[in-house]
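Hi, here's the filled form for the chain we discussed.

Project: internal
Contact: R.S.
Residues: 230
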Amino acid sequence: MALDVYLIPLGADRYELYCEHVADEESLTDEAPPGTGRIATINHRFKASVARVEKEQQSGAPAPAVEGGWQERLKRRTLCWIAEKVAEQRLLWRLRKEFDVALFFPDDVSADSALATMRSRLQYEADRHLKWTIIDGVLFAASGIVALVPGPNPVAYYFGFRLVGHFLSRRGAKHGLNEVRWECRPSAELTLLRHAVPMDAPDRERRVHEVASALHLQHLATFFARTTVT
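And the returned structure, exactly as it came back:
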C-alpha cells in the first residue's frame, strides 16, 4: 500500500511529519502462523503485545487494570514505553522501503516551500538519530559488563532496543532525503488545522476531529494533541 505523508502545521511556522497507522487484526493475535520457529514465535507474540498496547493508547480509552504482581506491572509499563517509541519512529521506519510517496501539505503555502520544510524535518531527524545511535551504541557495549551477572540483562535489552530504533530511523530519514520521489498534494483541510492551533481547547478539539474525519485519519487527533502540547 502506498504511503501518504502529511505535513501537519502546529503553528505559523512549525510542522511535524505524520503518517497514519492502523493495525490489522492478525497483528494483534498471539498465535503465530503454523510452522513458525520458537524464536519467531516469541518475536510474533512480543509484536502482538506491543500492537495491542498501542491500539489501546490510540483509542483514548483508560488503560485496563493489570492483574498480577509487580512483574506484570513492570511488563505493562515497558510495553507502553516501547509502543510510544514505535509510534514516534514509525514514519521513518516505513520510509526505508518506500520510493514513491505523496506529501499532503497546507494549501496556504507553495509546493516548493512544503518540500523544503519536509526536507528540513528529515535532515533534523537524520542528524538527531545519528547522535543517539552513537551514544546508545557506546552504552550498549558498556552494558555488557552487566552480563557478568547471571540472568537476563535488561540494561542491554534497553540500550539494544534504542540502538536499533535510532539506526533504523536514521536510515529512513536518509532514504527519504535521497531516494524517495515526493508527489506534492495541497490540502485545504490541513490549512484549517493551522487555524485551529490558537483556538480554545473545545473549539480546537472539534476542528481537529472534523479535519481528521475529512482526511480519513483515525489517529490524527491523538497525534495533534500530543505534538501541540510538546
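Let me know if anything looks off before we file it.
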